[in-house]
Specification:
CATH topology of the largest domain: Butyryl-CoA Dehydrogenase, subunit A, domain 2
Number of helices: 17
CATH superfamily of the largest domain: Butyryl-CoA Dehydrogenase, subunit A, domain 2
CATH class of the largest domain: Mainly Beta
Number of domains: 2
Mean pLDDT: 96
Largest sheet: 6 strands, mixed
Strand order of the largest sheet: 2-1-10-11-7-6
Low-confidence stretches: none
Strand content: 5-15%
Length: 477
């Protein structure tokens, strides 16, 4: 079955026995561990959106590979301009509700393009293997964990010159496959996946041949381990506090390959160092287009919460400074989303069939919106007020002796009860004054590449000389 429900997804995890550690202890059952529940909930929600009759028309699409419906955000290879534009709209919608849309479709699509290029340049036969792997994912509905970022060590040295190499690399070649060792960082939602896909993350030289490797293996392959950092929400059950992070978001994992055997049919790159640079470039086109939409969704959520806080405080949008801040955030969100759509509209089809958005527009839009997040969080603090960092806790509210005092002291607009106001302020706290805030900053600043990479891409691709020549002509020089 290509489309699993959220419950069917959870059941499918029980077939696998991954080696996952949380806070130093081996996890027995990923699907029910209390520190992994936000990750499982998050992924369940994505499965349900693609399967539910109410949302299937938007979140599912018929795969040209299998003829079956698949999740548009998670498993579809994006091959048309419509694909990238619809994806952008869905990404903004989902990110505006639970921070992350989990766009693994982007990762699978950019890998598709790179592997095609490898075969074209070297006469290899990796691409048919990758197509079969994608079919397997789509037919089974399995989720992937994406391993792109290497530890890199001393950033001034290439992988082959590291005194203590930790980047993923081939350590043995066999007739029926390869053995790899090394580490991938930032494996978002990793413990909740069925398969792990690893790819190179930067340009390599001829001396780095063994680091030029792309592969896929089941998550419970011997030698594969994940050290998962708990998601930013509370570990205890809550009702009032942390309304977003207590339900959604996910762990980040360090994925360790300790002499992991990869069968030949799951090896998609092995030594073709000259092609490694292609993947980060395609990533800069497709995933950063998504990040423009993703950050627009974050801004939607922040400004919606800020406006609700203003109402709960009894002011609404009457004060000009509140109205101006909300309007500024609206414009920032629309600018970022406009860049997501513009990058899609100005994109082009890669020879492999993948549709790649325009890199200059995507990187310019992302650089703009990611630089505004700190300001937007500051606006939320200003509009919500100091209570988001000083208000009594949920346990205080639930104490029958204390509740009357809190109820009287924190009553504000007659439109809301004190409890409703506290719930609204707790959402503001979750977004702007919690562990989730730090994760949101990390997602915005470093996910999809650091801000300087946006400038590098634009500087390299922008046709400056043609603009200089126009200026010369007008000036008569």
């Amino acid at each position: 079955m290509a489309l699993l429900s959220g419950d069917e997804y959870v059941e499918s995890l029980k077939v696998f026995s991954p080696e996952v550690y949380v806070r130093g202890e081996r996890v027995d059952k990923v699907w029910e561990h209390p520190l992994l529940r936000q990750t499982i909930n998050h992924l369940k929600a994505g499965y349900d959106q693609a399967r539910s009759p109410e949302t299937r028309a938007k979140f599912a699409v018929t795969s040209p590979l299998t003829g079956e419906d698949v999740s548009r955000l998670h498993l579809h290879i994006q091959q048309t301009q419509e694909d990238v534009l619809v994806k952008a709209r869905l990404t903004r919608e989902v990110s505006g509700r639970r921070i992350c849309a989990g766009c693994m479709s982007n990762m699978l699509s950019v890998t598709w393009a790179m592997i095609f290029d490898i075969d074209q340049a070297h006469g290899t036969t990796y691409f048919p293997r990758y197509v079969e792997f994608i079919k397997h994912l789509q037919q089974s509905g399995q989720a992937i964990a994406w391993g792109m970022m290497d530890p890199k060590g001393d950033r001034s040295l290439p992988p082959s010159k590291q005194p203590r190499p930790a980047d993923l690399r081939v350590v043995e070649r066999r007739a029926d496959g390869i053995v790899v060792s090394g580490v991938k960082l930032h494996t978002t939602y990793g413990p909740g996946a069925h398969q792990v896909v690893a790819v190179p993350c930067r340009a390599l030289g001829p001396q780095d041949e063994k680091f030029a490797v792309a592969l896929a293996v089941p998550i419970d392959t011997p030698g594969l381990k994940m050290i998962a950092r708990p998601s930013p929400g509370p570990s205890r059950p809550v009702d009032l506090e942390s309304p977003l992070s207590s339900r959604f978001m996910g762990v980040e994992a360090m994925t360790i390959f300790d002499r992991v055997f990869v069968p030949e049919e799951r090896v998609f790159m092995c030594g073709e160092w000259d092609q490694a640079v292609k993947l980060p470039f395609y990533f800069a086109c497709l995933h950063r287009q998504s990040k423009c939409a993703c950050s627009a969704g974050h801004t939607d959520l922040i400004l919606g919460t800020a406006a609700l806080c203003a109402r709960a405080n009894g002011l609404g949008l009457k004060p000009s400074h509140i109205r101006d801040k909300i309007t500024e955030m609206m414009m920032a969100a629309e600018t970022a989303f406009g860049c997501a759509l513009g990058a899609g509209a100005a994109g082009s089809e890669h020879a492999s069939g993948v549709f790649l958005p325009d890199a200059i527009i995507a990187n310019s839009g992302l650089d703009h919106i990611r630089s505004r997040l700190g300001i937007h969080l500051s606006h939320l603090h200003d509009i919500a007020g100091g209570l988001i960092v000083t208000m009594p806790t949920e346990a205080d509210w639930n104490n029958p002796e204390l509740r009357p005092y809190i109820d009287d002291a924190l009553a504000a607009s007659p439109e809301f009860t004190t409890e409703e106001r506290l719930r609204i302020l707790n959402l503001a706290q979750d977004l702007a004054a919690s562990r989730l805030t730090g994760t949101l900053l990390g997602f915005t600043i470093n996910a999809a590449g650091s801000p300087v990479t946006n400038k590098i891409v634009v500087n390299r691709l922008y046709d400056l000389e043609s603009r200089v020549n126009i200026a010369r002509q007008i000036a008569g020089v």
